[in-house]
Structures are given as C-alpha cells and as structure tokens.
Here is the input.
Amino acid sequence: MDKPAKRIEVLEESQTIAMAKASRQLKAQGVDVINLSFGEPDFKTPEHIRDAAKKFLDGGYVYYTPVCGIPELRKAISEKFKRENNLDFAPEQIVVSTGAKHSLMNLMLVLVEVGDEVIIPTPYWVSYSEMVKMAEGQCVFVKGAEENNFKITPKQLESSITDKSRVFLFSSPCNPTGSFYSKEELKGLAEVLVKYPNIYIVADEIYEHINFSGQHESMAQFEELKGRVVVVNGVSKAFAMTGWRLGYIGAPAWIATACDKLQSQFTSGTNAIAQHAAIAALNSPMQSTKEMCEVFRGRRDVVYERIKKIKGFETRLPDGAFYFFPNVAYYFGKKSPERTITNGEELCNYLLHEAHVAIVPGSAFGAEGFVRISYAASEADLLKALDRIEVALNKLD
Ligand code: PMP
Ligand code: GLU
Here is the structure.
C-alpha cells in the first residue's frame, strides 16, 4: 500500500515550516508576501565565521568526523558552558548534532520509554509534542497562564507529576512567547523536581543570547539537580547560522554516550565544515551577537507600539527570542464575505490570502486563541506587514 508507517501518519507537519512553505508558494506565483512565520534571524552569519569555514574547506580535509563532534569543538562547547553559564560539562559530556532540533529528538529517543510522560509547559515550541509522539511517550501539558507571562508555577508543575513522569521539557527564553524564567522562578521549579529523582530535565536554551532584560539563567545551575539536567543549545540563533545545522547538548555522561550510540546508527557526525565554523563562532568575542540582539530589541519596541494599536490584538512585551504572541480571540466569530473565522488557523489563512502576511496559529504551540508573529524581518517589512494585517482585520465583522 502506498502509505507511510503509522508513526509518520500520526505526526503533524511542523506548522512553522508549513506556513513558511505556503508563503514561498504564494511568492513563487508573484504575490508580494511578507513572511513573519519562520523563526530565523534575517542576518548573515558573521564574516569571521564564514571565513573559518572557507579556510577549512580550502584545506580539503572534509571527511567523516567523530560521531559526537570533533574534539576541538566539544572542548569549545565545554568552555562556553563554563565561561557563560558557570556549568561544568566535560568534553565527554558534549554531543554535537545536526541542529538543536536533532539534539532534542535524540534526547526523547534516549530518555522516553513507551508510555512515559513528558511534562511540557504550554505554549511550547512546535516540535516538542511531535518528538514525544515519535518516541511513543505521552505529553502532559501544563498551561502557562497569560497573566503570568505564560510561565508555569511550581504548584502547577507538582500537580502534573505522576509515577510515569520521565522528562520535564521547556524552553527559556521561550519560543513562542519570548518569556524567560528568572533564577528564582527556576529555583522554585527545581525545588519541586528535586523530590522526584526519576524525572530528567531537558532545558532548551537556544535563545539564550536573545534576551533583553536580565541575565540568562540555566536550570542546570542547581546543585540539587546535578546529574539530571540536559542543556540543549546551538548556533542557529546566537550566530545567525540556521542553515549550517549544528546544535549540541551538555548532559550527564550516560545520556551523552547514549546519544552518541544513537547518532552512530542514524546520522554520524554532523557536517564537518559547520563544526569548524562553530568553533570560530564559540571561540570569538560575542560582538556580532550583541549587535544582532540590540537590533532585535529595537524592532521589538517598534513592533510592540504598533501591535498595541491593532484592535483585538492583546499583547505582552516579550523579554527574549524574536516573537510576539498576541491573544487574538477577539476575532473568533467574525466574518469576511467568504468565511467565518472560528480559530487561529483560519485567521492565519485569512491573513495570508487577504493581507499577504504569513504568521503562525497558536494551536501549533498548544495555545489556541493566539498567533505567533516573528519579528526577524526588517523594520520596514514589519511595519508594512502590520499595516496590511490591520487593514485586513478591519474588513472582518
Ligand atoms: N528549540 C527552539 C525553541 C527553537 O525555536 C528552535 C528553532 N528552530 C530549535 C530548538 C531548533 O533549532 P536548530 O535545529 O536550528 O538548532
Ligand atoms: N525554530 C524556528 C521556528 O520556530 C524554525 C522553524 C522550525 O525549525 O520549526 O519557527
């Protein structure tokens, strides 16, 4: 029969990628679409990183690498954890993968037995739920209240824990809300987790450097959780290197060894050129990252002022990442001549076709009633897109 295995049939397509695809298709038909659906920095990879890659490529030694990454890169990552996060992950505890997405999938396959529960605060990054499905685990969603900047409380966490809980998975700064957990807030969650030694914590810190207020805090800093926290990070966001495909983990040694074994049968070591570029990225001053972050901050402020003026878009000022996540439920039940908007997906489709702006429905992140707007685009495009959105929304009644 011409159909894929069940494990693929039950999988949802990534909505961030689906919206980006729909917007590319419209663009190919000559439509002037502004794509605010995709979460990737619109900056070039900094020159010194590209130069390091070119130099390595010109040397021609582009062969298979050790599965978990070349030693110089694992050392650079281990040093980065110490320097920036004061965390002790020895090079043997580092595994380099083909993007943080790949690192996360490895972890689900390594940690989750069939039927195990993975606790995920909502809104969550789009792929978490599908990764848990692929690992044949069960998601247990915990709702981060909008009034609490979409963050969960220790009490909520505790009441989601059962005998089957195996992993607590979250991102901070968070995609899609841009919220981040302070040290005190993380400590509160850690105090709960310490009572349940069967639970491992997967802390997705890929937006670490896109943070506008306060110090980035890692869940791995708490002594009482030692040996139970895996930090996921990568070069995509901090160094505008999404297409290079390189992510990494710092993990308890047995988890690193298991990820290495998994990759040895699945992907082998990631692209050698990207690994050399990542060494240059991690070992050089963070000036370009800081500059990029400042540009994001400027855009965030401009977009915030503009979104606030759009009727029915209730938004908070995000602290990090590069997304707004407004509540748009006001528009549910409103009509255009062709359709009634009953949910976020319909609103996004309406805006794609009427305003030619691509954004992502909150349902993709486990939060119906919201939409995600990426501001990884030029200020001019952002303002044009928001003007168009407002005009299209005003046509609904
Ligand atoms: N985690 C989060 C929260 C993300 O937004 C992304 C963005 N794609 C990833 C992981 C994966 O990043 P990458 O695979 O590009 O390293
Ligand atoms: N993380 C980005 C996003 O959330 C990239 C898309 C993806 O990998 O799904 O849009």
Remarks:
- Residues 39, 99-101, 125, 171, 175, 204, 206, 234, 236, 242, 247 surround 4'-deoxy-4'-aminopyridoxal-5'-phosphate (ligand 1) (CB under 6 Å).
- Residues 6-44+288-393 form a domain with the Aspartate Aminotransferase, domain 1 fold (CATH 3.90.1150.10).
- The first helix runs from residue 6 to 9.
- The radius of gyration is 21 Å.
